[in-house]
Every structure is written in C-alpha cells, then in structure tokens.
Automatic annotation (TrEMBL):
Keywords: Membrane, Transmembrane, Transmembrane helix. This is Uncharacterized protein. Coiled coil: none annotated. It comes from Aquibacillus koreensis. The chain crosses the membrane at residues 12-29, 36-56, 76-95, 102-121, 133-152, 159-179, 199-215, 227-246, 252-271.
Length: 293
C-alpha cells in the first residue's frame, strides 16, 4: 500500500491530537493501577470500534481524510483508528478513572464537537448524513457507559469481566489484521477482485467471531488447547478461502498465521490478567505453567 508523505497539512491535526491523548494515557498509567487502565481503555476502544463499524463501515455516515494512504478506504479507516482507538477511549478512560463530575463530561463533549467542526473546515473530515451534534449527544452516553461499566468491572461482576476479556481480544485482533492488510498480507472479499470496501466490512465480523472462539478457549490451560485453537482458526480461514472470501498464499502465511499464533497465547494471558484478583502477581507464572500442563 503506497503512502503519501505521512506528515502533511492534513495529517498534522490527527497526529497532534494523538500526541495529546497519548500523554493523557501515560498520566493514567502513572497514577492508577495499570490493570485497570489497560482493560478499561481496551474495553472502551471495543465499544468505540463497534460504533465505528456500524456508522462508518456499513452506513458511511462520515469519512476521515488524513491523506496518509493513497487508497481512500484505507486512509479513512486509518483516520477512524485515530479517533476510536485513541481520542475517544482515552478521554473516556481518563474521565472515569479520575472520577470527573458530569459537567466535565459535557465540556469534553463540547470540545470534540468543536474539533469535529474544525476538522470539517480543514477538509480532513467529511460528513454525509452524520451531524456533529450527534457526536456531542452520543459522547455523553458513551462516557456514562464507561463509568457504569468500570463500576461493574471493579466489583468483579462476571458479565463485566467477560465483556472486558472479549473486547480486549477483539481490539488487538482487529488491529493486527488491519496492520496485516496495510502490508497486503491479508485481504478479505468475494471473488478474484477483493475491494477494500468489502475487506473492511468483513474483517470486523471475522475478528468478532474469531475473538469469541479465542475467549471460549482461553479459559482452559495447556499447550494442547493453544495448538487446537490455532488449528481451528486455520480451518476457518481455509473454509473462507474455499467460499471465495479469503485468498490463501505466501503473503497470508506471513500475515494471518503469525497473528493467529500470537493471539492464541495472548488471549490466554489476557484471561489470566482479567480474572485474577487485584494485587495478585501470578499472571505471568500461570501462563508459563501452561507449557507444563
């Protein structure tokens, strides 16, 4: 995938906001338990990804134009990653963990409303049927969900732990697959011509399904369970290839297969970290013990 100049007039606002929000994340990691920060951040990112899939991928409500990649679909999704994997979830995580009052949530929502209007003026963001006021309203709902969800997570509610486990796997999985697609290692779509539009509609559904399988499997220890999950994922890929939704070649082996292997063991690690008791430092040793079971 050919790139434009990464740093250009259109991409600078995206990178500037990314730097600011990254500093907020570092501040959170310094002041709060890293387990809480990372899992709330990943869960909030998962919620944002689900929203973005519906509004951007399926219904084309708006389009980002950071002009980093020449292909407009890839460029738009990359811009969405800035928003839904950095700006919005980091802000929600910060507001929740710092226990900010409701008026701060309103202020931050107004800030994003203004930023959206500014991006439209800069022509780095285009709205179709979407309106900035929707962003203002839904962000307040999103911040409320973040607060309520974290309350349940901190009380070790089973449903909250399960959602955290699942969305953490899914966010990492879909991010890996996006990186593999950019490097032209993995491409989903029907027939010989796989369009990027089709790819970005299929990949989130694929990652949701694969992540669910990984979540169900990761509660069971042992190397055999890890290998069986990799084999099962490969069978799914071969089935999709047989149906014409995935092209299997050397690039696939260099792209998707390493992702499956890494995510199989990472999903087990995430399981242990999510379900272990606060303050229990045995997660790494438990994963290591898998090889001897």
């Amino acid at each position: 995938m050919k790139k434009n100049n990464v740093i250009n007039n259109k991409s600078i606002p995206f990178f500037l906001l990314a730097a600011i929000h990254s500093l907020l994340l570092l501040l959170l990691l310094k002041r709060h338990k890293q387990r809480n920060v990372w899992f709330l951040f990943l869960t909030n990112t998962g919620f944002a990804y689900l929203f973005e899939y519906i509004i951007l991928n399926l219904f084309r409500g708006y389009k980002y134009k950071p002009s980093i990649f020449k292909n407009r679909h890839v460029d738009a999704v990359f811009g969405a990653i800035f928003s839904q994997a950095l700006y919005v979830p980091i802000s929600a995580t910060f507001l929740t963990l710092c226990k900010m009052k409701w008026y701060w949530k309103v202020i931050i929502s107004i800030f994003y409303y203004v930023i959206e209007k500014f991006f439209i003026w800069l022509r780095v963001y285009k709205v179709n049927w979407w309106k900035p006021v929707y962003t203002f309203v839904l962000l307040n709902v999103y911040f409320y969900i973040s607060d309520r969800f974290y309350l349940a997570f901190s009380k070790n509610r089973k449903w909250a732990l399960a959602i955290t486990h699942y969305l953490s796997i899914e966010v990492i999985y879909v991010s890996f697959l996006y990186a593999s697609a950019i490097r032209r290692k993995v491409r989903f779509g029907r027939g010989n011509y796989h369009s990027w539009k089709e790819h970005f509609i299929i990949v989130p559904l694929y990652s949701l399904f694969i992540s669910f399988i990984a979540m169900r499997n990761s509660g069971k220890p042992g190397l055999i369970k890890r290998i069986s999950l990799i084999v099962y994922q490969l069978l799914i890929d071969f089935t999709l290839a047989h149906w014409g939704f995935l092209k299997l070649n050397t690039k696939y082996l260099l792209g998707a297969l390493p992702v499956h292997i890494v995510m199989t063991f990472l999903s087990r690690f995430i399981y242990i970290k999510v379900y272990r008791k606060q303050g229990d430092g045995s997660a790494v040793s438990n994963v290591t013990n898998d090889f001897s079971k």
